[in-house]
Amino acid sequence: MGTTASQLCFYRMLADVSCQIHRTLTDTPDNISNMTEWCKKEGCWLKVKNFDMDLNNDFIGELKGIEDLKEDKKDAKKVQKIDDGIACQRQVLALGAGK
Predict the structure, then answer these.
(1) Distance of alpha carbon 15 from its chain centroid, rounded?
(2) Mean pLDDT confidence for 88-97
(3) How far apart are CA 18 and CA 26, in angstroms?
(4) Residues with Cβ within 8 Å of residue 44, at least 6 apart in sequence
(5) What is the pLDDT of residues 34-91, one digit of tens each?
(6) How far apart are CA 53 and CA 98, in angstroms?
(7) E strand or H helix at 48, and its extent?
(8) Contact call for residues 12 and 3 (beta carbons, < 8 A)
(9) Where are the domains of the chain?
(10) Burial of 29 from C-beta contacts in 10 A (0-12 / 13-18 / 19+)
(11) Alpha-carbon distance 11 to 56, whole Å?
(12) How far apart are CA 82 and CA 96, in angstroms?
């Protein structure tokens, strides 16, 4: 199975955000020279939490809202109901053909 355009967009954004977070983590205050010690401090994680993430428009366009997800789920149930009906009709036809 190939990678879709949506997946590629997500992977690119994930790599980009990872780089952004890495830069935020490694940008230690002047009084701290050991990055691993900095990463254990609350100030580090507050900085990560509050940094302005730069998300590209392609990625944002791929995101779905709650209402879209609910609609997708409703549509999937309708399709499944139709598929189940077709499967039942096949069974009836198969039983009828055997007699």
Answers:
(1) 13
(2) 86
(3) 12
(4) 25, 38
(5) 888 889 999 999 998 888 887 877 777 777 777 877 888 899 999 999 999 999 999 8
(6) 64
(7) helix 42-50
(8) no
(9) 1-63, 65-99
(10) exposed
(11) 12
(12) 21
